[in-house]
Amino acid sequence: MATYDLLLTGGTVHTPGGPVVADVGVRDGRIVAIGARGDAGRTVDCTGLDILPGVIDTQVHFREPGLVHKEDLATGSEAAVMGGVVAVFEMPNTKPNTDSAEAIEDKLTRAKGRMWCDHAFYVGATNHNARDLAELERLPGTAGVKIFMGASTGDLLVSEDARLAEVLASGHRRVAIHAEDEDRMNARAGERVEGDPSSHPVWRDDESALLATTRILRLARAARRRIHVLHVTTPAELELLGQNKDIATCEVTPQHLTLAGEEAYPRIGTLAQMNPPIRSGAHRDGLWHWLNQGVPDVIGSDHAPHTLEEKNKPYPASPSGMPGVQTLLPLLLDHAAHGRLTLQRVIELTSAGAQRIFGLTGKGRIAAGYDADFTIVDLKKRWTIEERWLRSRAGWSPFTGMELTGKPIGTIVRGQVAMWEDQLGDAPQGAPIRFETTGFPGGR
To answer: Which top-level group of life is the source organism from (predicted)?
Structure first.
């Protein structure tokens, strides 16, 4: 009789071939049998629960080093696994910026023994490191290159076409893009109204996003470089990106699919402030239209925490960004419960899509030989987001008080239980994500 380190019993397992009620056997951190029979060192009863491929959040800001009063790698990853997330791609706008081999190594060292989920770190493009990016993107634990076309911290702004072309010419992996046009935003700074965060999307308007996305598509095509446009907020951009799938993939966020400016800014003020902005209900509905046409490839949280003290400064002195890694999956499960998308589409957007476009090794599906990454959910659970459930150091969420249907019950990272029924596991077990060889077909 077979023996396993871990046996998940009685759950509905969402395999590439569809859902099946089966036991799953895990050994040495990997899936070894679906429909397993035998003994195990630990058995977890999943009767009545759904076992999804581990959720991968491909855009988080965990603020370490330099901004740890907002968040750090430990607290951010706690929030991740509490929300069912097994792996994250972390962004480079820290202090100092993550723009060198030394900075990547520093983050990997900081993560070891402290992060609850698996992880990879983006290296930020600057106006000075373009020639180094081809080597930097190949470093172990690196998610690839991130370009900020619109205002960012430190030296991470790359806004001129010539500089963008240099960055795109250096390397092979898919490049992540924050697409807002710096010149247009500078020209429109006068549209900001003191004390009125609802003027944020007036300043950073549709055209600033569409202009930047159009520019980067043109430059990417000239460089023959694949790109990934982050946190898309306008239906016009998604329509354009849908016409350029040979060169571009894209992301939307749960907050842009859930919040509408007409309601959010009067209700929570600067807590709804982020870049690109929360826009109108018509924009939100347009994102759903293109989501259901299959255009977005992934959903990322753009988890970007600030303290309440910082967020409560009067607009525009208030910083942009909101926590989101812990609420990413709960919001999507609720949308699925209300028929806005299928559970299979949730899986595609939170695990399989990331594996496909970024070339992750051993993640993104429940199949023999893959990492034993599972997000176990109760699709019928009705509950309310409360502050005491939140693990981010920021301690707040724009969704506090929201009633949801569907909740993460367990998070298993390479066979280790990182969270079960709102309780963290024994110790952080996160490790660097592995990627396919650079230049592999399909990923880059």
So the answer is: Bacteria
